[in-house]
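Dear colleague,

Following up on Tuesday's group meeting, I ran the structure prediction for the two-component complex that the binding team flagged. I've pasted the input sequences exactly as they went in, so you can double-check that nothing got truncated or mislabelled along the way. The structure tokens for the whole assembly follow below. Feel free to forward this to whoever is handling the docking comparison.

Inputs:
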Amino acid sequence: MELLFEGIKKAFYLLFTLDSEVMGITLLSLNVSGIATFISLFIGVSIGTVVALSKFPGRKIVVSLINTGMGLPPVVVGLFVTIFLWRSGPFGFLGLLYTPTAMIIAQSVIATPIVMGITLAAMQQLPKKLRLQILALGATRLQMVWTLIKEARLPLLAAIMAGFGGVISEIGASIMVGGNIKGYSRVLTTATVMETGKGNFDIAIALSIILLALAYLINLILTYVQQRERPR
Amino acid sequence: MEKSSNTPILEARNLHVERAGVTLLDVPDLVINEGEVLSIIGPNGAGKTTLLQTLCYLMKPTQGEVFFRGVKVGFQLPPFEYRKRLTMVFQEPLLFDTTVFNNVASGLKFRKLKGMEIGKIVIENLELLGIAHLKDRSARTLSGGEAQRTSLARAFAIRPEILFLDEPFAALDPPTRESLMEDLEHVLKKANTTTIFATHDRMEALRLSNRIAVMKGGMIHQIGSPMEIVNHPVSEFVASFIGIETILSGRVVTKGAGTFIASISGHNIEAIGDARVGENVMCFIRPESVVISLDSARGLTSERNVFSGTVEKIIPVGPYYKIHIDCGFPLAAYITNDSCRDLSLEVGKKIKASFKATAVRIIGKNKGISKDRE
């Protein structure tokens, strides 16, 4: 028990004194996962919207693939990104393996289907006639799509949150393509694993508290979003 | 590009909509004139919505053309340009998740109007529909009636050349519907907007429109003025839908000058009109034209058609009762609550039912049936 209390005490000390190593790790985590979420937002929302609004043969298969992608195991993503970026791999010449950029790529691959799937669901949840109503008000196709995205803005916020939440707490891909290099590619999750392994519970607990706080914040926003209703 | 003023504002030719081999709409010809209010009535699934959506090109017809002021919608007038000149209000208000003001402004924003101008038009239309006080409210907090008013204000703000209304009152409770319909009637008269109004409520149609089209199975069975539809329904379906309760089939037995007598289940009914002896006919007798008196009353009435019968059913309908009578053939009558009390009507009571020869509407039976098959 003493181990836990001591750990928590030291963890808060590290947090309140803004320990440079803890802060550095946190900032890199936010940075990598933030950029990855941003990239996935662009790809996920646009493809999700297109799939939601169009009819084409094999659409059901595409939708099921997207939904499967929402649960893509990070280690599998990590493995394939590693292979692609491996020195003798197809993109080896870029020299990206074991860099934060590689982590951004891997996390984007993980977050994109999540954002895409939620976007798809959000757009399909809008009343079907809303599209006709927008067109009947004289909107161009582009204006219609933009209006629909605005109408789905709350579920889309949920998509961002879910994507971000998925990648900031992910470890498999980050450790495989980032390498957990101190002060360079070490993020919250990879650092926690390593510090726990070394028996440095104080730092591990401090990092965990930050992760938990982020998770809580995301869920708080999600809950708020889910409680809101659409107008008639 | 637009033609002379006597060109109809909207004309549909040979409109045909098919989905998965099923015909949803089959309208060979429909002309809508500037400034008129045309109601499309019919039961659920009659094709009213399909017709409306096809007419404003929200749904592409499988076949056929739509002409707006004489110009064919398509190459010369792209659907998107055409749609800018009309709008549609649906059964659901379909408001955007923003304020009432922004909702009413949305059509104007799509047209890239300037902020000052938008503000002026929006306020005008909010006042027109009596919801100026709601302008900063979120659309999420509106009642059903307020939301539908917002939806109508949003439509009128565009100043559409044709306004399509797809059962806009169907989801509202009766008092809300009544007050909204009164206001809509007023606004339509004032703006003189060409309106195509789909409803399954014949009373709404009779009240608001210059012409009524009765639809079933994707086809227009009859189109004409409210009086024409009520007094001269062309088929059994139109008659029953417009609210004529008693529909009887019989055979013409004697013919006089402008009148004839038809035998219906052995009872002779005198009617006005032209018919050949031996011809099969359908008779419609509107319930409000049937007078009920006590069986013991003296035969002072000028009505030719007087029948003894038994009260079968008494159904309260607001301020009226609908009485089903068995006279050897079924007959329905409306009487006021007061007369029902005075006559102390009850099920099983013997009464006399009478109606004038002019109250009987007749059509050739074959005509009615063939129309149904078309």
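The two ends of chain B are 37 Å apart (CA to CA).

Cheers,
M.
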